[in-house]
Amino acid sequence: MTARMSDHGSDFGNGPGTGTDRDIDVLVLGGAGVDTIVYVPELPVPFADSHMIRPGIRTRAGQSGDFVALGLHRLGLRTHHLDMVGADPEGDLVRAFHRDQGIPLTEVPQPAGTKRAVNLVDPEGRRLSLYDATRGHDDDRLPPATVKALAARSRHAHVSLTQPCAHALPLLRDAGLTVSTDLHNWDGRDAYHQPFAYEADLVFLSATALDDPGATLRDIAARGRARVVVVTDGAAGAWYLAGSGAEPVHVPTAVPPAPVVDSNGAGDAFAAAFLYAWLAGEPVDRCARYGAVAGAYACTVPATRADAIGRAALLAAAGDEDGA
């Protein structure tokens, strides 16, 4: 299985910048895919023979890894994306997304096809995602040589919750990288998420499925190697815990710069802005404030578009023009 740099059109390893040069700030693993956005009158969708959908149905590239990579790139971090991508129309959209945004993509062939989902979005911006579970296999792997080569060039790795990425975690550790991950709507118990939760230095997750967010924060910090654990909770803000034995700290929401239209991508935006500050050595409270600002901005962007806050706007909205 050969990885390919789609933005250069050559096999990975033959281009400039290879070797031990740390020319990548964040290596994003996994989470490349395509969403079909369907606006519905309400969630759950009322049973009917049919619904007239406005403003229409649109398919666009952009799943969790894509949006984290976009957020980091817009904030000025040298970002590289690695994932399995199919030779299909969805894969073409993913390749075009990275080419148009200027984000390098190393793609590994995925015979099962590019990841895809249907997102139902209601008038309040709430989302229900239907993922195509056929677009992957239990034995999918990112080639170790490719992971090692990219890791040798990187300062940090952000790992998505996909099967190939779980097997890449030891390789990233061996390379000496710090690692972050997003557990999304983990319930705090499902065993699949545990290697990600306990092997990352920085852990993000949503409060959506948690009975006791504080207990989950403490459990991850106590059982894993996380320096910081962050739980995002929509309009209620977020909570972070910095180290085992610490107490959770509340992070208030930021004021959106425009009307809220969609929550899609808010968690990815939060993670990207938090990482931007964290990698600059900023204190955790400032990292969290940046995350809140970027998440609020993302809620003003329709799900049919791919956009992320830039560095100047982030710092201005955070009241911190002299920050990271």
From TrEMBL:
- List the GO molecular function terms: kinase activity
Q: InterPro entries from the entry?
A: Carboh/pur_kinase_PfkB_CS, PfkB_dom, Ribokinase-like
Name assigned to this protein: Sugar kinase
What Pfam families does the record tag this protein with? PfkB
Q: Return the PANTHER family for the record.
A: RIBOKINASE, SUGAR KINASE
Residue ranges constituting the Carbohydrate kinase PfkB domain according to the UniProt record: 26-306
Superkingdom classification of source: Bacteria
Q: Which UniProt keywords apply?
A: Kinase, Transferase
The reply to whether Acyltransferase figures as a keyword in the UniProt entry is no
Read off the Gene3D superfamilies from this record.
3.40.1190.20
